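[stage:ingest] chain + small molecule (2'-deoxycytidine-5'-monophosphate)
[stage:ingest] validated
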Amino acid sequence: MQKLVITIDGPAGAGKTTVSRTLADRLGYRYIDTGALYRGVAFEAARKGIVPDDDPALADLCQGLDFKFVRHDGGVSLFSGKTDISEAIRTPEMSLMASAVSARPVVREALMGIQRRLGAEKAAVFEGRDMGTVVFPEADVKFFLTADIKTRAARRCRELEAKNIPQAYADVEKEMQQRDTSDATRAVAPLKPADDAFLIDSTRYGVDAVIDQMMGHVQKKLQKK
Ligand code: DC
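[stage:predict] done
[stage:export] tokens:
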């Protein structure tokens, strides 16, 4: 069977992670969370006391990155060197820091190479913000998943609660709005759907319904190949 590159972009809290993982499992593809890479850069920058607008220091940091996705029964973990940073990169502070470093061209360029290498074997679902527009403009099937801000903020609150880092709804919504604005208005690779992406609004659809729509588009592509 043909191996595809599938991209799923969209704002925070639209349900990209659950959907991307499920779709990858259904197809027997790898799932690659590119947001984790930006969070990894944020984590390493914070650890070294680098502020997000110090481009020379960020460039230096990016040269020495040693990230690895490791698959296990419970999902995928991100390692930086020998350290599993999967949990540490999920805090609200790392969300904001990741958004800030992701606006720096030096960081985007460094991660572009890493992401394209991960895509070379195909048979992968890439989740991010610019997968279909910048990193894989030739992807076989592109999706842009969104939902209204209230639905997204409520989902993120539930996720944080499940991780034992509860936050007030109002703070989550404010932080999300802030990130949406900075991700969508940055000069390089702003968050927007690719011209040839299928737009899916998950406000009223559950995961299964979204996956069914996606599988329909993927099957059509596989039949054409
Ligand atoms: O998907 P996430 O919330 O884990 O992403 C963290 C930040 O990284 C997000 O604010 C935007 C940025 N990001 C990006 O600019 N490009 C990507 N492909 C993935 C994430």
